[in-house]
Amino acid sequence: MSVTPTTAQIGDTLPELTFGPISRTTLALYAGASGDHNPIHIDLDFAKDAGMEDVFAHGMLSMAQLGRLATNWAGQDRMRALSTRFTAITPVGATLTCTGTVVDRHEEHGRVLLTIKLAAHIDDGTQTLRGEAKICGTP
Amino acid sequence: MGIFNRSTKGHVTPPIEVTLERGALAFFSETIGETDPVYLDPEAAQTAGHPDILAPATYAVVVGTFADQIARRKGQPDILELINGDLRVLLHGTETYTYHGPMFASDVVTVENEVTDFTDAKSGKLEIAHITTRITHPTRGLLVEATRGIIHRLG
Predict the structure, then answer these.
(1) Which residues of chain A make contact with B97, given a CB cutoff of 8 A?
(2) A5 falls within a domain
(3) pTM score > 0.90 for this model?
(4) Residues of A in contact with B58 (CB under 8 A)
(5) Is A108 within the bounds of a domain?
(6) Domain holding B95: CATH number?
(7) A13 close to A24: Cβ distance less than 8 angstroms
(8) Cβ neighbours of residue A109 closer than 8 Å, sequence gap 6 or more
(9) Prediction ipTM score
């Protein structure tokens, strides 16, 4: 039986999620859909002027994947918090692998609260995001 | 010396009303690869007991960005302009959401930003602006509080 928020124990892992390869089209669509028009993600001329070799993916596109990993497992109504630190740039063409592990489970005010450690890695093994979700585990 | 305008510490932006348009929300869900119909299809969302399609976990940042766009259209500075953010050397450092209630398509919410602090890291090679965004619904109260660390790479 697969792990659910109400049965999860410390050390359990959530179903992995992959996203990509992240194309320039994906970045253009994300810019439009999110309203984040920062040209560093979509305009190669701007990126080069800023000293970058190429455009790179929006960090928030990757955080959205960590969000999906958590909500696909728990449902939006159990989400209490989601946090991320962006640890490396995600290049064009990368495929993300997102993982989650239960690292804490305790009762607070009569409710069960799970802490899920989250991470995103790209093809070469670089960790691009690390984060945490707080999820309600009360039956 | 940093680039951020540190005199804006403590500044709270005027509240901006944002309507969560259904088409825009579904477009975002699709773009991030969401396949759960509660984020895409109003009928499926209603069958699941929601008034309309749900906003995904990171949609708060989009609502904040839309509020920025509305502020600019009103002739007010957006948050980056306010703190003097420079896109050429800007990186997103951290992002945190605390959820108090769900956001749905057709919700009309109020967005307020607060410049909470400026800090330095890596012996002055990085400067960080700390911004808190609160998204509030007129009857359901505070829905999401977002905090963000925006970094300038200096030299």
Answers:
(1) 81-83
(2) no
(3) yes
(4) 60, 63-64, 67, 82
(5) yes
(6) 3.10.129.10
(7) no
(8) none
(9) 0.96
